[in-house]
Amino acid sequence: MTHPNASMALARALIDELAVQGVTSVYMSPGSRSGALAIAAAEHPEIELCVVLDERSAAFHALGSARASEGPAAVLCTSGTAAANLFPAIVEADMACVPLVAVTADRPAELRGVGANQTIDQVKLYGAKVRAFEELAAPEPLADANQTWRHAVARVMSSSRRPRPGPVHLNVAFREPTVPVTDDGRTAGEVYPYDTPRLVTASEAEVATGPRVSLETAVERGLVIAGDGDYDRMGLLSVASGLGWPVLATALSGMRGGPVISSYGRLIAGGVPDDLVPATVVAVGAIGPDTRLEDLIASAGDRVRVDRWGRSIDPRHNATVALTGDPVDLLASLSGHADPAWVERWAEADRMARADSDELLSGISPMTGAHVAAALNRVDWGALVVASSLPVREVDAHLTRAGKVFANRGASGIDGFVSTSFGVASVIPRTVALTGDLSLLHDSNGFIHEGAFDLTLVVVDNDGGGLFDSLPQAPHAPQFDRLFVTPPNRDLESLARFHGARFGTVTDVESLVAQVGASLDSGGVHLLRVPVDRRHDLATRRQLAG
Ligand SMILES: Cc1ncc(C[n+]2csc(CCOP(=O)(O)OP(=O)(O)O)c2C)c(N)n1
To answer: What contacts 355, CB < 8 A, 6 or more positions away?
Structure first.
């Protein structure tokens, strides 16, 4: 099989090699230079292509999809500022170890640096934020380059998997024509006379495994903090239970429910109670957002940090040991001296703190962000996507059921939230997204994409960034509302209508549980607004914090 021109040959080989390397979802934004890539992706039988208007949103869609599918996802775009717009999602993918594949179309060498339209220097555009960069030169019509192209794609894809998963960048130059004809009316090209078959050795069947780690000590009064990271949840619970160590599970670990401790925020608000001070803490992955967990770690004699991918997570610089490897292996290498009283003390303290918190919450009205997070315990969601700012904190404080919980907390941006949620929803049925009003509005372009994904967005509408009220400097900042809170003063119903989403305003917990459940049952895109008073919300947070 030949190809109508060299651009299509390169694009088809590249997209097919992405499929060989495990990419099944490709997100793209419209552009001329990327035309061959778009066409190749659209015609590929193993690729699901989704068109998203805004490149920044497209990259976050891909990020959400990659997170939810636990595999790579690609985003492709045209040259110029389009490519620059992928950067926020790449930053997040870097810090959260997500295999996001950025494919940017570029001008050929002769059009670079000479003032050609929509041309910027895209070589290593994302710097050290990507695990690997490959440049593919504009193809020559009479050179058989299939193997070269496929090897370049295979190399970057390999770097997206190990030694540490993360984003990669393919910058690909095209000469016109970039559509499947030899003459597109603007430029004439030559037929590309070669086939672009798959290479026999291209696929790497690899299982990602971290290095084995061990401490080889015997520890009483040990404790595990399960954070966001790559490890076997059930394995962790079972090894910790064998050691006689309690597991404190952050909401983002997805391990809430069952025997885990979740009310740690309230429990250690006034300092770690004497009878709960651990000898050793093993903190697994990223343990935010509750900084009181850092107080708990600081109270221990041995402070171990372990992350499968070697992320350095030690904000107070107090780790006594920092390890790269499988957390379950690490715990399995320890020999504990199970003291049932130790686990029971933690469990009892947790039960009491949770009961206190629930009782307080039930007596508080009108509704706050805390009520919203707690209400989600009663909804049968398949995935919960949580925005940075207060939602991730409220969910950490009040979520008591297990399930897949996603948040872009690698870099904690409020950008790309709507898009990330749609990306997750494209993979996992019954996805609920919990957000503040600013995070929603920041990414309202994320609604503009193809595909009918079901998503229920619950918006805690406190008219601005309520998180800033919690900052110690809040009372001292001049023009606080204008410069920090930035009330958007926008009608979210109009936004929902504009994007064809169904809309509802909810002011009590029972209605919220019913409406979120009903929206998931009916499918489609729903935006449920929960109006919340900022000052009342702040007072409630303070009260519940203990
Ligand atoms: C891209 C980006 N810009 C700015 C910030 C700083 N920031 C952190 S929280 C926040 C306010 C978020 O408001 P909202 O989404 O309404 O949530 P709330 O604070 O009310 O929970 C801002 C602007 C950020 N984290 N990311």
So the answer is: none
Enumerate long-range contacts of 113-118, CB under 8 Å, 24 or more apart. Answer: 118/33, 118/78, 118/79, 118/80
Q: CA dihedral defined by 519, 524, 525, 530, rounded to 10 degrees?
A: -10
Distance of CA 182 to the CA centre of its chain: 42
Residue 335 has a pLDDT of 81
- Reported confidence tier of residue 112, pLDDT bands at 50, 70, 90: confident
Report CA(435)–ligand 1 centroid distance (Å).
10
Name which of 541, 462, 436, 446 is nearest 499 in CA terms. Answer: 446
Burial 34-69 (b: 16+ CB within 10 A, else e): bbbbbbbbeebeebebbbbebbbbbbbbbbbbbbbb
Lowest mean pLDDT among 53-67, 216-230, 253-267, 417-431: 216-230
Q: Cα(465) to centroid of ligand 1, in Å? A: 6
Q: Quote the radius of gyration of the chain (alpha carbons, Å).
A: 25
Quick: pLDDT tens for 420-468: 999 999 999 999 999 999 999 999 999 999 989 999 999 999 999 999 9
| Phi-psi group of 342: left, alpha or beta (phi > 0 → left; psi -120 to 50 → alpha; rest → beta) | alpha
- For ligand 1, whether the C-beta of 289 sits within 6 Å is no
CA-CA-CA-CA torsion for 206, 209, 211, 213, nearest 10 degrees?
A: -160
Backbone angle region of 23, left / alpha / beta, with phi > 0 → left and psi within -120 to 50 → alpha: beta
- Which of 392, 435, 439 is the pocket-test mutation for ligand 1 (most atoms within 8 Å of CB)? 439
DSSP notation for 109-129? GGGTTTT-TT----TTTTGGG
SS3 388: coil
Q: Any bridge partners for residue 50, and if so which? A: 27
Secondary structure in 3-state letters for 61-80: HHHHHHHHHCCCEEEEECCC
* Separation between Cα atoms, residue 171 and residue 139, nearest integer Å: 13
Residue of 65, 70, 74, 62 whose CA lies nearest to 15:
74
Rounded Cα gap, residues 23 and 193, in angstroms:
27
Does ligand 1 come within 6 angstroms of the Cβ of 465? yes
Query: Strand, helix or coil at 529?
Result: strand
